[in-house]
Amino acid sequence: MQFNKVTDALSVSPQISAGDVAAIREAGYRAIICNRPDGEGADQPTFDEIEAATKAAGLEARYLPVTSGIVQDGDADAFGQALMELPGPVLAYCRTGTRSATLWSLSQAKTRLVPEILAATKAAGYDMAGVARRIVNGGKTPTDTGDAKFDVVIVGGGAGGIAVAASLMARKPGLEIALIDPAEIHYYQPGWTMVGGGIFEPAETAKTMGSLIPRGVHWIKSAVAAFEPKDNAVILDGCRVVKYDRLVICPGLKLDWARVEGLEETLGRNGVTSNYRYDLAPYTWELVQELKEGRALFTQPPMPIKCAGAPQKALYLSADHWHRTGRLRDIEIGFCNAGGVLFGVKDYVPALQSYMDKYGARLDFFHNLVAVDGPAKQATFEVAKPDSAPERVTMEFDMLHVCPPQCAPDFIRVSPLADAAGWIDVDQATLRHKTHDNIWSLGDVMNAPNAKTAAAARIQAPVVAENIVADIRGREPVAQYDGYGSCPLTVERGKIVLAEFGYGGVMKPSFPKFIIDGTKPSRLAWLLKEKMLPPIYWKAMLRGREWLARPEKISAGG
């Protein structure tokens, strides 16, 4: 547990867990402030979990969430007010502690000298020089100059960010590249379905970020607050400014748990789980093993979501376990999908429907989860069928697997680089921004009409790298992305329907049909998913080795 003392009245820290609260009390703290919004990270406990542990320990808790990197003056005022109202000393936390340190610095601007603020935060391990510039500049962060400058800046250290960094280094080793991401841990998120099915251990899906970032790439461990493309600048948490010649944006999606009323309060208990969170996927498997009879519901929200097949993958692996243990006849399974079809590419639907039939799963289309009452074991859906008035229905459950609503991160949606829907606005072939020609985007956050999967990012990364190198050499884009995405649907333990497709739902198989016919369940596809894809991810994709991912060239005619 890391306590970074700013003053006698306040310390700040990175993310805490409910299990840390006892140590916080023993260290003498009497109150906790949470400055991190729920749903910001895949391994993040909700404030409700922290608050419950805090109250049990006899401490006070206050929720003052601030969007990563976007600290408003009003947020700082609220933070200062909380420090006056709460019993001290107080521990404030966010992802890294930087937001909390920033809030304190701004809240003290009227009563302390800037050098005093800088000295206190520096002693705690936080550089608030950017905040000082904001204070002396009347509350605005100037971007005409920067704290650092790089040839290429990459925002996001997920699958897309590390892959494109590695691909760039392989093509042009002398580039000065910076990767911006505050996370300590990088997750192989496609593996969480397998954790929830009792096949992988959670630890197999996580590695330290520092061990994966390519050698020679500068890691800036911070969150992004804003983009200033007119100045080729990125503003970071703490109001620091990084300048770039070329920018790549790939921070992934925000899991919007709060959009479902009551969900955050009951996640991880009362039979409510989700494979979309690292710490909850083991709970999925625990519930599957414990359930002997009753009703199990699996939900899917409106698109877009990352890995559109993941909600039903959880259903298939759970149902297969109940089938193998002779319990399926006593368990009613429901798949509540906000959309109107089982899968978006029709060629794969017959095989998937056959498994839904095998498991006796009821399909409720146009059912969008809007509320959960965990203690009462009730899930409420808004039903919006075509040509019918919307209505709400409530279903009882013994187990509920939730796929949360998803959207672009807040700092993306409000940026000048986003389209009207909040996604980075790119050319779908070259992945170059439509109005800023020194900016590219890949992965889940851009607006090309493709499936949001790690397999898509694996193909996109070399395209972006190739086109950036061409741009450095004064050439037009040379590589194009065809919309490829893949979804290995785990229809039973040992068999997978390997869905591979491009723009417009066109099938794009990687293997000849006599090896793997993607429209049929395959044991070989399971072997690919279980044994081959994880090392391909860790040792090829994230290392710039582009096996079956060489970029498609743009033809001379277009």
Automatic annotation (TrEMBL):
Record-linked SUPFAM superfamilies: FAD/NAD(P)-binding domain
Signal sequence region: none
GO molecular function term, any single one: sulfide:quinone oxidoreductase activity
Keywords recorded for this protein, A-Z: FAD, Flavoprotein, Hydrolase, Oxidoreductase, Quinone, Transit peptide
Enzyme Commission number, as recorded: 3.-.-.-
NCBIfam families: TIGR01244 family sulfur transferase (TIGR01244)
Name of the protein: Beta-lactamase hydrolase-like protein
Gene: blh_1
